Amino acid sequence: MNFALRKPETRTARPRIEPASVIAIASGKGGVGKTWLSTTLAATFAKMGKRTLLVDGDLGLANVDVQLGVAPETDLAAVIAGWVELEDAVTPIMGGSAAPGGFDVLPGRSGSGALAGLPAEEASRLAASLTPLALQYDIVLVDLGAGIEENVMRLARACDRCVIVANDEPTSMTDAYAFIKVLRGYAPSVQPWIAINIADTRVAGRRTYEALARASQTFLGFRPPLAGIILRDLKVREAIRQQKTIVQIDPNAQAALDAAQIAEALLRGGAEGVSVAAN
Ligand SMILES: Nc1ncnc2c1ncn2[C@@H]1O[C@H](COP(=O)(O)OP(=O)(O)O)[C@@H](O)[C@H]1O
Ligand SMILES: [Mg+2]
Fold first, then answer.
1. Nearest C-alpha to atom 15 of ligand 1 is from which residue?
2. pLDDT, tens digit (0-9, with 9 covering 90-100), for 125-155
3. Burial degree of 10 (CB within 10 A; 0-12, 13-18, 19+)
4. What does the radius of gyration of the chain's CA atoms come to, in whole angstroms?
5. Which among 50, 79, 215, 273 is most buried, taking Cβ atoms within 10 Å?
6. Which residue lies with its CA nearest to atom 10 of ligand 1?
7. pLDDT, tens digit, 9 for 90 and up, residues 89-137
8. Ligand 1 in contact with 34 (CB < 6 A)?
9. Single pTM value for the model
10. Cα 126 to middle of ligand 1, angstroms
């Protein structure tokens, strides 16, 4: 297995001084909008002029490529199999990260076998390969698979921050809490943030966030900051159906504006100005 990267100069005209901020998008439960938020944040950061890479970390049920309407020639499954180098699996979207509004994707392959099935050593190597990649970008987003199993945590551990997406369904909330708890034990240096998706109202979204933040405060001794609240919006389904980002089809749709606020909060360091101290 060879995760060797070519020298960064082959891809980047502008040498970077600081590595990218590496942000995982996670949830515990599937179907809460992780992949949609990942692709939307990638397009939003790109629009803000950030050199952005989106990694499809949901190896077994990969669908970043499906949501973006691209058919990558190669993918992370081929990288893990040792057939291609990581660098060769980078797929440009809308001209790629060097083009205005474009970004890069490291696609997964649906049906290639879940991340859960990877030997620990390979999952760790995949996670470690994010570090040199981060030197070429301002932002690296990792769309994590659902669940709290160890390989998901291995990838999460390679990130600086982890945005946990939840909605108001009790199963989503308990799974989000479980994710925060396991992450805290497994990777205490990774900051967990909370994003509430598919909220019916802002007040309801805030209530869901408060319930999760309170449980973390009471049982884990810290309060994850709020990344933001995204309202339920039919335009999300429309974008997914058209296999385009919502930023392309309707940048003024409510969910697109809500995601843009999350991007800004992540760049600022907190919607509430709260930073999470490791304790
Ligand atoms: N803000 C939203 N408003 C309405 N529907 C949404 C919203 N976010 C996500 N969805 C719906 O949820 C579905 C699952 O989203 P997806 O990103 O595939 O979830 P995950 O990656 O967590 O499994 C989407 O197909 C979309 O229909
Ligand atoms: Mg997904």
1. 33
2. 889 988 888 999 999 999 998 889 898 999 9
3. exposed
4. 17
5. 79
6. 33
7. 999 999 999 999 999 999 987 666 666 678 889 889 889 988 888 999 9
8. yes
9. 0.91
10. 26
